[in-house]
Structure formats: structure tokens, C-alpha cells
Amino acid sequence: MKLKLLRRLALALGAALPQVAAAQAPALTTFPVGTTTVTASALASNLSTIWELVWGPDNFIWMTERSGRISRVNPTTGQVLPLLTIPDVTESNESGLLGLAVLVPAAVPASTSYLVFVVYNYTDQGVLKEKLVRYTYTNGTLGSPVVLLGNIVATTTHSGSRLLLLPDNTLLMTTGDAQQQPQAQNLASLNGKILRLNLDGTIPANNPTPGSPVYTLGHRNPQGLVQLPNGRIYSSEHGPNNDDEINKIEAGRNYGWPTVEGYCDLPAEATFCTANNVREPLTTWTPTIAPAGLAYYDHPAIPGWRGSLLLAVLKGSRLTQLTLDAAGLAIPTRTDYLTGFGRLRAVCVSPQGRVYVGTSNRDGRGNPAAADDRILVLENRAYTATATRPAADFSFGLFPNPARRLATVQLPTAGYRLQVADLLGRMVLSQPPGASATAVLDLAALRAGTYLVQADGPAGRATRRLVVE
Description:
By secondary structure, the chain is mostly beta strands. Helices cover 5% and strands 42% of the residues. The strands form 8 sheets. Strands 1-2-25-24-23 form a 5-stranded antiparallel sheet, with no helix packed on it. It has a 4-stranded antiparallel sheet with strand order 3-4-5-6, with no helix packed on it. A 4-stranded antiparallel sheet has the order 7-8-9-10, with no helix packed on it. It is globular, with a radius of gyration of 22 Å.
């Protein structure tokens, strides 16, 4: 029994450590981010309309392609390992296999059996629809599909859809308005919404409207969704011919579509916004750029991107950095990078600070190069991860452990950034470097379970296990 426990802990800690470095691929381009030189290279090529890239609990990239294929991609070698091509996916115009999320079941946190959630379009008696399906991944095989939510109205455009797993073991799913604009304001419709479900497809008891999966309403076509370590959630959304948006997602809020486009800056919009609890966007684009995948970057490898959202852009063909103010309520600056690779749909960040971007040039709206579609790697090749230093570099105290609401961290000196991650590697708490060698972690928002506390500072990086009761 003790050996099993040690093996599970070793696997969990191993997931937080850098992988063995791969031979560096040829640079396709370089660009500056502040004083850092970022190199872009190709990890994998000759793919077809990449839709989703997710960093998995196995330290592989999980990928969907719109035609219906789910694969794991080795981030060291670029080898694409197909798992399943879903037989009833309907790919037409914007429809097909869309968002994906991967979860280790809470009961077996170091297991190699995962729950895999996907959303896709299918045809039912000649009518296009959308559904959310849960698969089980075990021993290299993806199977046992369970439909959690189906029969969602769809067309060949405006289907969304991104998935986001939350720390409370619920799942968010974005849906587009399916070109039926008034339905975005109809609580009885699943279109033009962000939905929240339990992992078995049931409705959480604390959803904004009892008995309803609707978490937010008034969306046109949200195609990006991310949660920060502090719990804040952001989404990207396609506007019509104006007002693409970045939104801060808050439970129960209305995001205005179709009455409101962008800000509440017209008289009729202002009246509607006041009466309907509308949350204005943090920033907009006119002309539109077609914003897609959204990720959060907070790694020392590329300091100029720390604390920012990274946005994959389709029509605008670029990666955009969106800085956030301290409250997360404003985007003071927008900076564009990575032009010249066409349409960009998906983005994810590895624990080692590399950024993976998926192109979407074979989606019928791009001009594919011979090697498209590709997964591009953006990295600071001059960066040496402090986690590769010997474990004896430093240690820190953590007490009490197990803890309930508060835990005290005793560090060698001041100046350490603290991050708390669950055993999937998802950051659930982050504190900037402090002026004291003693820090206090507020654990009140964390569920009971096992976490990894990482201290990153002058002496390198160290990790300790923390049990929250």
C-alpha cells in the first residue's frame, strides 16, 4: 500500500518537472518580447484544421482536428499519435469536431485513466446539431462515449465551442447563436450561451438559474475560454462586422447580443444594459479580427508576457498579447506577434513556459502552405529552467500540513513567487513575490485534496506537497 502511495506521489511530482530537452527544430522566425528573443519553430506539420490544443495530464499535447480526429502529440519529438476519429462528426464550413478538455478522475489523481470531453457537430435525420460527449482514455485507448448534452440547435456557422474544466469539478461549454440571434437572450435555449455542467452531465445546484445549465447568456460566437490561477474567467467572442470582444465571464451575467454590439455606448444599448445586467467587454476590435483560442501566460521563460492573455487570431493572422491590470478588469495594452503564418486557431502553454499555437489554414478560409496545418512552438531558447537545479538548492517550510483555511510558507529570503497547483498541473492560486520571507496562503477557496506548492525565486525553484482538508 505504501509503495502505491509513493508511486502516485512520484508521478504527480514528475508531471511538474521539465521534460528532457529535444533537439531544437530549425527556427522559422524570431521576434523580440521586451529584451527576450522568442524563436518560432514547427513541432508537427501536415495536419488538417487544428481546432484545439490542450496540455494534458500526461505531459502530451491533446489535439482535435475539425474532421473528427483526436490525437496526442509528443511535445519533445512532434510525433502525432492518433487516438480516435469520431465517426459521426459532420464537418461543413465551420462545423465539425471543436473543443476538448482532459481530466484525471479525482479518485485516482495519479492514474493513467482520464476523462476526455469533446464537443462536436453531427447530423440527426438530416438536421445539423451539436453535442457534448465524454470519453474514457485507458491504456492508450479512447472509448466508452457517453453523451452528456445533445440535440443542440446548430448550423454550419456559429457553433462555438470551447470547453473549460473548473477546479470544483464542473465544466463550462460555449455555444454560438447558430445564426438564430434572438435565442442568445432566451434562457430556454442552449444557443448563444456559456453552459455549466457537472462531469456526469447533470446541472450544478448552484448554477445562476436553478435547473438550468445556463451560466451566462447573450453571446454571439465565443471561441476562446480560459481561467486564471486567481479564478477569473475570460472569453473571446466573434462580433458581426464590428466589435469582436474579450469578456470577463461572471456567473449569471448577460453579454448583450444581439441587442448590444461591443460596449453599451448607444442610447438603446445603454437602456438594455441597465435593465438586463449586461457585462461590457474589456476590449473590442473594429474592424473585426476573428479572435479564437485564449491562454494565460505566467512563466519566467518569457518575462514580457507574464500575467497576460495570449489570443490566437484567425482573420487577423496573428498572436496577440493582452495585458491585464491588477484587478483583471481592464486590458491596458494589446501587442501583436507571430504574423506570417496565416490563420491561428488554438493556443496552449506548457509548464516549461513554451507556447504552442495551432494554425487553421485548411479550414476553407485560408491560404495553406505546403506544410499546413502546423503546431508552432514559441520559446525562449536562452532560458534555463530553475527547476533543473539540484533539489538541494533550497527548501522551504510549509505548515500546518494538512491545512484547512490558511498555510504559512517559510522561505529562505524575500522575493519568492508562490503558486499552488492541483495534481493536473492547473494553477489554482498565485501570489507575487513578497517583501518578507514569511508568506501566508489563503486556502479558503480550495476544495479538499492534494496540491503542489511551488516557490520560485532567488535560489531557484522548489516544490512541496500540501494536503487541504
